[in-house]
Structure formats: C-alpha cells, structure tokens
Amino acid sequence: MKNQEKEVSNVSRRKFLASAATLSAFMIVPRFVLGKGFVAPSDKINLGFIGTGKQSITLRRAFASQEQAQIVAASDVYRRKLDFFAQEINKFYADKKGADQYKGCDIYEDYQEILERKDIDAVVIITPDHWHAVQAVAAAKAGKDIYCEKPLSLTIEEGRAMVNATRKYKRVFQTGSMQRSWDEFRQAVALIRGGYIGELDNIKVSVGPPPLAYNLPKEEIPADLNWEKWLGPNKNYSHFNEKLNPDINAYWAKWRDYKEFGGGMVTDWGAHMFDIVQWALNMDNSGPVAVTPPDQNHKFLTFEYANGLKMTHENFGVGNAIQFNGKEGSIVVRRGKLEVNPESLQNKVIDAKNLGIYHSTNHYQDFLEAIKNRSKPVCDVEIGHRTASVCNIANIAYELKRPLKWNPEKEVFINDKDANKLKGRELKKGFKLS
C-alpha cells in the first residue's frame, strides 16, 4: 500500500492537469476529484455560503470548526445579515490559532459571483425553499459540491432536477437532514431494521400543519434588502412583510408557513421526521404508494406503502417525533430522546453496519470527507429528494382534499391530472432547472 501511495505521489501535477484538460468542456474538475493522492495535507476545502439567515449561524459554526475546511465567501440579498455573517466568521478565524493565512470572507449580493470563483470547492445553500433548486442546479453546473438545507425542494419536479444535475455533473451533495448523524435516530433505525419490535403495525409522525396561501399584510421594504432578488424564481410577486425575513436574532422566519415559499411544517419538520421513517423502512429510493387526507374514514392524513404498512400524520401527544408500533414493542424517537418498549432494548448493542445502515456521527465532517473521497454522504441528494417527495405528496393531498395514488418509481400520480400539475410550478422568466 505504501508503494502504491509513493507511486501516486510521484505523478507530476503537470501531467495530471494535462489529463484533466482532455475531459469534456462541460466537466469542471475540482481540486479533490481524484482523491488524496493529488491534495496536499495543508489544502482546505473552500466553502461559499449562499444565504446568511438564522440557520446560517448553526452551519457557520459547524463548518468553521472543521479543520479541513474554511469559509471564504458568503452571499445574501439582505446586507445587514451578510455583514453580520462576515463579521462573525472573520472574528472566528482571527481568534483561531494558526489561522493567520486566512484572507477574510468575501461578500456578495449575487450568489452567482460565488459560483464563478474557481477557488471555491463547495457551497452551503441556506436560502428559503423556493430558491433551493435553481441555486443547487446552478452550483452543480459550476462544478461545486453542495450542502443544501432541508427540505430539499419546494416541488417534486424541482427535487428530481436537483438529483439529475448532481449526477450529470458528478457532484457530492449532502442534504441538511442532520438527524441521520445523531445516535438516537440511528439506534431507532437499527431497532426497526433488525426486527427488534417485530413486524410493524403502523407509524405515526407528529409534525405541524401544511402551508397556507400567503396572507400577511404589506409592509415597507428595508433599504438594505433587495426584495426582488429575495423573491427570485417565483413567477408571481409577493409583497414584503417583516415576518418573512426578520432580524437575524429574532424568531425563525415565517416564509416556511406559506406555500409560495415553503411547505408548512409538513415539509419543514416533516423533512426531518419522515426522513427517519424512510431510512428505517429502507425506502431511500422509493416511498409510499398512496396518500389519503382526513375524511370520514380517516381521522388523520394517511400514507400507505406497497406492503400495506400505514403511516399517519398525527399528533400523538409528543411534538416533532415519530412513533413506531410493532407486534412485539414500540419506539418513540425525537431529538435527544429514545423511548423503547420493552425497556430491555433501550441500550441494545446492534451491528448497524451489518444492517446496511450508514454510520455518521458528524453531518458536516461526513460531507467534507465525501468531497475528498468523491463518495456519497449519509444523506445524498436522492435521499433528500425522496423525503421531500413524501412531504410534498402529503401537501398535494391536503390541497386537493382527496385520496391519491402515487407511483414512486415513475414519480407520477396515477390517473390524476390535477395532482400531477402540482408536482411542479412555472418559474419566473430567466430562471431554469437545467
């Protein structure tokens, strides 16, 4: 093995670059594409942040703490948030021992300027959901690896476009469903996959409601906010209200409550909890085959999988949680807490790897390692898309108020033109997903 590494290290960089140049003009070769043999140990993965709102605080700290990466640029259409981000990250590196070579965080209003920089290896997308697909596809075309917040996409078609672009341009893509890197959720998945509570009878997912049509009153646009750019790919204009884009230290922005920008709590928290269900059921490349909204026979919106297993969108007394009910026991899992019946399973040691369960303990490090290894991370774009699709078909059923049959292989509703129209949306002129 050492001789092989020595042989690789002796390959001249000039020859490598000459070989790379023979690739298709449409293929952009990042510094990490051929692995560790061509990367100096001192090299860091350069990150550009697209979006600097409240969630960026968590992600800024998470990625800045990774020694193998550095944040070198950020973009946002709201200048005060952008300035705050740059101020904080510059201070972090200024206070960090050995960071004297850091040149500072460059800031831009237009995210395209980040994509044009050849020295940036990957982007972290933290914009509202209505922007995700356009930005992710553009990033893939620009040769950037991508970390994108959940829920992955506003519509089913946009999610598939993100998958297609990722595969076409051979990008590494991590969906921000970080619960896949948390112990309590991995243990719950292992218990289900291992059959420790027997065959499943039903599943309950407790997350909030579907979205509303935008109905907030019109307010004056702040002088340092480019509202037209914030609306971005949305074809129809929506007036400004502070609740859509509040101060960085205020509450979570309410754009997620309105279908013009997000999918309500069905997608916002559902992207976390339905994701764990999909993982536990080994459905990362598929999904339910039917969804029924509440009616005279169904108190709660109900999904059905091909094997007959049913899952309800139901508040069972614990918020943002999942209840798995099996023939030999039950599991309730939420952030920081795993409750198992029988109790003897609470600390059961399980060989998760043998069950085909990807093991990650740090979602951000996992993404960076995948960049270096050119591998799929714990929550690859296909996984994020499939989970978002579960949430989106629920919202479509809520909107149409009737049962729907879903073909997860072809990603179409069966014999329902109205439902299929809602799989996508028309974008504003000048924006595209290809």
From TrEMBL:
One of the Pfam families matching this protein, by short name: GFO_IDH_MocA_C2
Tree of life domain: Bacteria
GO molecular function: nucleotide binding
Residue span, Gfo/Idh/MocA-like oxidoreductase N-terminal domain: 45-176
InterPro entries: Gfo/Idh/MocA-like_OxRdtase_N (IPR000683), Gfo/Idh/MocA_oxidrdct_glycsds (IPR050463), Gfo/Idh/MocA_OxRdtase_bact_C (IPR043906), NAD(P)-bd_dom_sf (IPR036291)
Domain Gfo/Idh/MocA-like oxidoreductase bacterial type C-terminal: 215-428
Family matches, as PANTHER family: BCDNA.GH03377, OXIDOREDUCTASE FAMILY PROTEIN
UniProt protein name: Gfo/Idh/MocA family oxidoreductase
Species per Swiss-Prot/TrEMBL record: Pedobacter puniceum
